[in-house]
Design goal:
single chain; about 675 residues; alpha+beta; Immunoglobulin-like; Heat Shock Protein 90; seven-stranded mixed β-sheet; five-stranded antiparallel β-sheet; about 55% helix; about 15% strand; phosphoprotein; phosphorelay sensor kinase activity; transmembrane
Length: about 675
């Protein structure tokens, strides 16, 4: 009966061993051995090695189906049994190729047959017998005999996702197998450090918050990815390493918050999409909640949260980037591609965590590599934005220079105009001063002298001693002065009206011949005193359309000048001749000094100077009448012209008749 019981127990033991693969170390390459392992879940975490061995004998272990064991986010302790045969003749390594397991204990059988344990983990200090860097390497002793079966138990626990790649290899295989992994990691670590240093330099140089947020996003992400996930925290002191392994999700939350702030600044959402601010507040609250949970020490809860928070934040930021690009923000194209890499990395990791995709060694490099590519693309986006700003600044500077040049040209033009106007004003002021001086001269001399003559006549005390003939002769002698005074007063009044802009042209139709005859009667006595004959040469049809008073003043001044400048015993002709241009009105006479007359006429025409020229009998003149003639001729649509041949002078102008009036 005992024999049958022994046979039954031996068969059960052999059946358990049959389900468990024996690892041949001489044929083993640098590969995970998960499918050849069996494991036991210890939910209490209090089982001893002997109790575990009894459960093994009771067939309570489960066979692993994957090369890399995936125990999920569990708070349980797991025991893993490894059975191997070392035929290499040398020692071997048991590699737990993941850095962030909080408890890793390796149980082996010593030389004396007693169990030996080497305790390690991410929260432990350096221990002899294990190399704890970015993985855990346990050194296994050389077997006594090459064909012996060797048994190893691993006890592992962590408050995070428990992914356990295990390798059993010789010394030579480990050195060759880990080289590729180290080469890949050195590449993306170098890229991330370079980007971090470059961004620090840019922030110090430009003092722009966007570079601060990007640098913080990069730094916190570097701590989580490189120091925690890939285990390079071992390079730092124990106290700092413990902070990273206890609160890893704090750095992930900090990186997410910095990424959200960077996105807001980089996409210029204050101007482009201010209405998405509540969405950003919502994403920030997710990241803040993850940070608080991590700081409170709920590492397992934080690990469960990151699967959803990181995916939600990444999708939200990517969607906002697409909308920003559609609204014309050109640098957003690199931003969108960067977030696509981030989302793809997160999705792939989640598919592996949920068991949809099988875990491989490269799975642990997916998120660091996609994040590195994301950081590179964001750096390209910053460069593109900076290039766009430089281009915009250059265009603005060129536009400003063009505007400055245009304004300078306008200013120069305005200065030229103002200078010209100032020069004209100075000329007018000088002319006004000359007119003022001339006006005082006229009043003081040309008006005062005739008045003094009259006053002297009426002041005679012995008026009774003069007979009628003597009195008549005295009055006739002063008539010339009185007529000159009247003409001067008329000229002064008309000139004053003209200076005050109160002269208006009243066009009427009148007979110029009759007007000329009246004026000849007025000047007949003065002309006779110099023995000068006045003659009027006029054909039929002397009707004109002009301002009669102004034309009358013009003729009076021309006749007066002709009488004044003509020597005695000569003739003054007034010629009215109908021509195609209108009625030609001319005053013709002989002068003693044609050069002086020509100078007075041409000088007055060019610069409007009122230069007086003495007459043939030294008669005084103001020059004011000639100026009035030119101005009134212009007002009546004509122009005063002259012909000087020898000592003969002819002043003439044209007047139109009523038929040329559009309103007639």
């Amino acid at each position: 009966m005992r024999f049958f019981a022994l046979i039954l127990l031996l068969s059960l033991s052999l059946s358990s061993v049959a389900n468990e693969g024996v690892i041949q170390l001489d044929k083993q390459s640098y590969q995970n051995i998960g499918k050849k392992l069996i494991y036991l879940e210890d939910k209490t975490g209090e089982l001893t090695l002997n109790e575990v061995k009894k459960l093994y004998q009771a067939d309570k272990f489960k066979q692993s189906k994957d090369d890399i064991l995936n125990f999920g986010n569990s708070k349980s302790t797991f025991w893993i049994r490894i059975l191997y045969q070392n035929t290499t003749g040398s020692g071997s390594f048991l590699v737990v190729d993941v850095p962030n397991l909080e408890i890793v204990e390796c149980y082996t059988t010593g030389i004396n047959g007693k169990a030996q344990v080497i305790k390690s983990g991410s929260l432990s200090n350096e221990i002899e017998g294990v190399i704890a860097k970015n993985n855990f390497i346990f050194s296994l002793s050389k077997p006594d005999q090459a064909n012996d079966l060797n048994e190893v138990y691993l006890r592992i626990k962590t408050n995070n996702f428990m992914l356990v790649p295990i390798k059993l290899i010789s010394h030579e295989v480990y050195i060759a197998g880990s080289a590729l992994k180290q080469h890949i990691e050195s590449i993306y670590i170098g890229v991330l450090i370079t980007l971090l240093l470059l961004n620090i330099f840019l922030y110090i140089s430009l003092h722009e918050k966007m570079y601060l947020f990007y640098g913080l996003y990069l730094l916190a992400g570097f701590v989580y990815l490189v120091l925690y996930l890939r285990g390079y925290a071992y390079l730092f002191e124990y106290d700092f390493r413990i902070i990273i392994y206890k609160y890893p999700h704090f750095f992930l939350a900090l990186s997410s918050m910095a990424g959200i702030l960077f996105s807001w600044k980089f996409l210029n959402l204050d101007a482009l999409l201010p209405r998405v601010k509540p969405v950003y507040y919502f994403m920030m609250s997710f990241a803040l909640a993850l940070m608080i949970v991590s700081l409170l020490g709920y590492k397992s809860t934080a690990a469960s949260m990151i699967r959803y928070t990181t995916l939600f934040i990444s999708l939200g930021l990517g969607a906002v980037g697409i909308v920003s690009w559609n609204k014309g923000h050109r640098p957003a194209k690199f931003y969108i591609v960067a977030w696509l890499f981030r989302v793809s990395g997160i999705v792939l990791i989640n598919l592996n965590l949920f068991g949809i995709l099988e875990l491989r060694d490269y799975t642990f490099e997916i998120f660091p590599i996609t994040t590195t590519i994301e950081m590179l693309l964001l750096a390209f986006a910053l460069g593109d934005r900076y290039s766009m700003l430089i281009s915009s600044e250059r265009e603005a500077r060129e536009g400003l220079m063009e505007l400055v040049q245009t304004q300078n040209q306008r200013l120069e033009h305005v200065v030229e105009e103002r200078t010209l106007k100032l020069s004209e004003t100075i000329v007018e002021l000088e002319s006004s001063n000359r007119v003022k001086d001339k006006l005082f001269s006229i009043v003081a001399h040309d008006l005062r002298t005739p008045f003094n003559s009259l006053i002297s006549i009426f002041s005679l005390k012995d008026m009774g001693m003069l007979n009628f003939e003597e009195l008549k002769m005295l009055l006739n002698a002063n008539r010339k002065n009185i007529d000159q005074m009247r003409l001067t007063l008329d000229n002064l009044l008309f000139w004053a009206k003209d200076q005050m802009n109160q002269v208006s042209v009243q066009f009427t139709e009148f007979d110029l011949k009759k007007l000329s005859e009246v004026l000849m009667l007025v000047y007949e006595p003065i002309a006779q005193s110099k023995n000068i004959r006045l003659e009027l040469n006029a054909n039929e049809g002397s009707m004109v359309y002009a301002d009669e008073n102004q034309v009358k003043l013009i003729l009076r001044n021309l006749i007066d000048n002709a009488v004044k400048f003509s020597p005695e015993d000569n003739t003054i002709s007034i010629n009215l001749e109908r021509q195609p241009k209108g009625l030609r009105v001319a005053v013709h006479n002989v002068v003693l000094n044609p050069a002086a007359v020509k100078s007075a006429l041409e000088g007055g025409e060019k610069d409007r100077r009122r230069s007086d020229v003495a007459g043939a009998a030294n008669e005084s003149g103001t020059g004011l009448g000639l100026q009035l003639c030119r101005e009134y001729m212009k007002a009546n649509g004509s122009q005063l012209q002259q012909n000087i041949i020898g000592n003969e002078v002819e002043l003439y102008f044209f007047l139109k008749d009523n038929s040329s009036n559009p309103a007639a």
